[in-house]
Specification:
Elements (H helix, E strand, L loop, with lengths): L3 E5 L3 E4 L4 E4 L1 H11 L3 E9 L2 H12 L7 E4 L5 E7 L5 E5 L12 H7 L4 E4 L7 H13 L4 E5 L9 H10 L2 E5 H10 L7 H11 L4 E5 L5 E5 L4 E4 L1 E2 L9 H14 L4 H16 L10 H9 L4 E2 L11
Parallel strand pairs: 1-4, 1-8, 2-6, 4-5, 8-9, 9-10, 10-11
Antiparallel strand pairs: 2-3, 6-7, 11-12, 12-13, 14-15
Length: 313
């Protein structure tokens, strides 16, 4: 399946105070990739329960390929209890020992991975040996694919060993500002700024680049060889941030695989993430035309002074 982006990880239900929404970073990412005109294959595992059936139905409704969503008869569909602070930032309680912890490297999945252009994975779905070993096999087979690591430091859902092993597998690292600080502490990196942390990580793990999202302040990318680019943030009215970072990642990698400059990659991802932050939930529709119209309409930009020397604006 040449041209395919494989997303390995969790499909789960975000249980919000007033409703439930199908989510999980890899799922949100795969949905957005498809909406941008590329082919994304989501691989995960749901329970043989009502929530699993509902998840499969929702994915069909969204036009997603469910042929690599496995069904588990021994473990429930994943759920996360989500609450929000006064600034609408989410807090998560992630239920352990669920179906996606037991995702297997099936023969069909191995065949898809061997032909993929990109493999996106994170740390949450590596909590258990079954899914962790399955990912290791998929990474091994996806030899020619760009390995995109989207770190999520969720409480009790990662270990230092898992993070180090994931970084060794990756070509591109994507993380947010808080995750960059946590990674710097984990790696005992002494640095003056986020760009210095990113430079050290790129060099130490021989990455092509490290992308850091900075919430309303935009995004920074630091590449091997010292190249840097910064995209200022957009002033928008935040509805909720669920799926915004995943949309950024989808926009970035879509442009990256298309051969765009790093500056254009983060600019596009930044705009897509900003639009999603103005919507409720992670899978509200956004077309490519919506993104380009948003970028052309000239919303107020929020420049981080420390990053200004890397901006192309």
């Amino acid at each position: 399946m040449s041209g395919t982006i494989v997303a390995f990880g969790e499909v789960l239900w975000d249980l919000l105070p007033d409703r439930r929404i199908l989510g999980g970073a890899p799922f949100n990412f795969a949905y957005r990739v498809n909406s941008l005109g590329r082919t994304a294959v989501m691989t995960s595992r749901v329970g043989a329960d009502d929530l699993g059936e509902e998840a499969l139905g929702k994915m069909r409704q969204l036009g997603m390929d469910i042929s690599h969503i496995q069904v588990d008869h021994d473990h429930p569909t994943g759920t996360v209890k989500v609450s929000f602070d006064s600034d609408r930032n989410p807090d998560y309680v992630i239920v352990p020992d669920v179906a996606y912890d037991y995702t297997e490297a099936t023969d069909d999945l191995q065949a898809v991975a061997g032909q993929a252009d990109c493999l996106c994975f994170g740390t949450l779905a590596q909590r258990k040996p079954v899914s962790r070993n399955a990912l290791a096999r998929i990474v091994e087979l996806a030899e020619g694919a760009v390995k995109l690591l989207d770190i999520n430091f969720r409480k009790n859902c990662f270990t230092t060993e898992t993070v180090m092993d994931s970084l060794d597998k990756a070509d591109i690292l994507k993380l947010n500002e808080d995750e960059a600080a946590s990674l710097a502490e984990m790696l005992a990196i002494s640095a003056d700024g986020i760009e210095d942390v990113a430079d050290v990580v790129v060099d130490r793990f021989e990455l092509a680049c490290c992308v850091v999202t900075l919430a309303e302040k935009g995004a920074l990318v630091c590449a091997a060889g010292g190249e840097k680019a910064y995209s200022p943030g957009y002033s928008v009215e935040l509805v909720d941030s669920l799926g915004s970072g995943d949309a950024f990642t989808a926009g970035f990698i879509t442009k990256y695989l298309g051969g765009s400059t790093l500056g254009r990659c983060i600019e596009y991802g930044n705009a897509l993430g900003a639009i999603v932050a103005t919507q409720q939930g992670a899978t509200a529709p956004v077309s490519m035309d919506n993104v380009y119209n948003f970028m052309a309409s000239g919303p107020e930009r929020l420049l981080e002074p420390a990053m200004a020397r890397y901006a192309s604006l």
